[in-house]
Amino acid sequence: MNSELRREIRSYVDENRDRMLSLLADLIEEPSVSGHEKAAQSVVVEKLESMGLDVDVWEPDVEALRDHPGYFDTNTYEEHGYDDRPNVAATVEGTGTGRSIALAGHIDVVSVTEDKWTHDPWTATREDGRVYGRGACDMKGGLAANVFAIEALRDLGVELAGDVVIESTIDEEAGGTGGALSALERGYRPDAAIITEPYGVPNVGVASAGAMYFQITVPGTAAHAAHGFAGVNAINKAVDIVQALADLDRERKSRISFEPAVNQYPDAEGEVTNLNVGIFESGDWPSTVPDEATVECRIGWPPGETREEVREQVREAVGSVVEADEWLADNPPELEWFGWNANPHYLDTDHEFAQLTKRNAEAVCGADGEWTGGLAGLDERFYVNYYDIPCPSVGPTGGRVHGADEYVDVDSLVEVAQTVALTAVDWCETA
């Protein structure tokens, strides 16, 4: 691409940013908490159709996906199913034999506790160079940037030799198997892809964490508290197991490192693997010795271990408590894996497309970027692990993701759209 066209693309995106922000506002103002994505997807469909594109809208077919090695039933699928939860894709057909690219993102967002917000979570509030609202950063901002990048190329009359697929998928917050994986299995398998997750341009994400959920059910024997000697307190037994899991977490942190995660979050030094006890439930009356306790946990880890290796460490930690406790040895707790069951991924930073994306991000921002990622489970893993499709992330800066007053920085969103547009032209080539 000649330098004049590069300047023209960047200027057009910058000067017309309000059109991108208008789309972002429309997306924020259609709530799309995981399991309820249809209304917001209708906004995407309407926008793509207004660009003259044929839009593919479909609901995931679980039976067609279930045998895939990357598939698992997500929590939202188990609660809501996939009826009325469509994925959306549209293809801008190239005019030649250039390489293809997918520009992808997820429409679903996490829930809100509205009394914690100082801005209305379902209204796009523009203030001090930011847009506030649920999903502004994670990741309706990235979706809007993808769409506007291609709209800008169209308006400028830039025709590409390769196809560009714009995707808006569901279910990512719960694992993505009904979203990104469904799109890949539907046949959307480009030569390269970008997912505009909020990594903070010019940083480029190249890794995601493995993530698994598990539940431990610990038995006890009920009794009146005054006769506690006649019962076995399941909470006390469960606490010993929780302590063993905490010990495992510390041991893993002491020996596991992953530089891209620390590049993204300096505070992650020594914290790039994590075992979190998220739910502890037991008992129904203060005067009753509880006869059961359940503990639900999430373990996450950067590239370097398999799911089975991590599971075995958890089993050994629980087993060490069982072996040392006469009651538990005779009444062993039940360990079940559920929900998230994702392998980590890592994209080779020497790959041509990773290098191209980073060069464009750095040129747009006028700053050096870092290779980042490895703390969270992401849709990128489906592309890299199972289809050998290079899929880096380049997304905006912002804050309070998953929290109250989530926001995205407007200037960074412009830089993302510029980076995406330039990378699409460089990769697909002009016709």
Structure description:
With 431 residues, the chain is of the alpha+beta class. Helices cover 39% and strands 21% of the residues. A hairpin with a 7-residue loop joins strand 17 (398-399) and strand 18 (407-409). Helix 12 (352-365) packs across helix 14 (410-428). The termini are close together.
Our measurement of the CA-to-CA distance between the termini, rounded to an integer number of angstroms, reads: 11 Å
Helix content: 25-40%
| Number of β-strand runs | 18
Low-confidence stretches: none
Structural class: alpha+beta
Strand order of the largest sheet: 1-2-6-3-7
How many helices in DSSP terms?
14
What is the CA-atom radius of gyration, in angstroms?
Answer: 24 Å
Strand content: 15-25%
The gross shape turns out to be elongated
Largest sheet: 5 strands, mixed
Mean pLDDT: 97
Task: List the defining traits of the structure above.
431 residues, alpha+beta, five-stranded mixed β-sheet, four-stranded antiparallel β-sheet
SSE topology:
Elements: H1 3-15, H2 17-28, H3 38-50, E1 55-58, H4 62-65, H5 75-80, E2 87-92, E3 101-106, E4 125-127, E5 130-132, H6 136-155, E6 164-169, H7 180-185, E7 192-195, E8 204-208, E9 210-219, E10 223-224, H8 234-255, H9 259-264, E11 274-282, E12 288-289, E13 292-301, H10 307-324, H11 326-330, E14 334-342, E15 345-346, H12 352-365, E16 371-373, H13 380-387, E17 398-399, E18 407-409, H14 410-428
Parallel strand pairs: 3-6, 3-7, 8-16
Antiparallel strand pairs: 1-2, 2-6, 4-5, 5-18, 8-15, 9-13, 9-14, 10-12, 11-13, 17-18
Helix pairs in contact: 1-14, 2-3, 2-6, 6-14, 8-10, 12-14
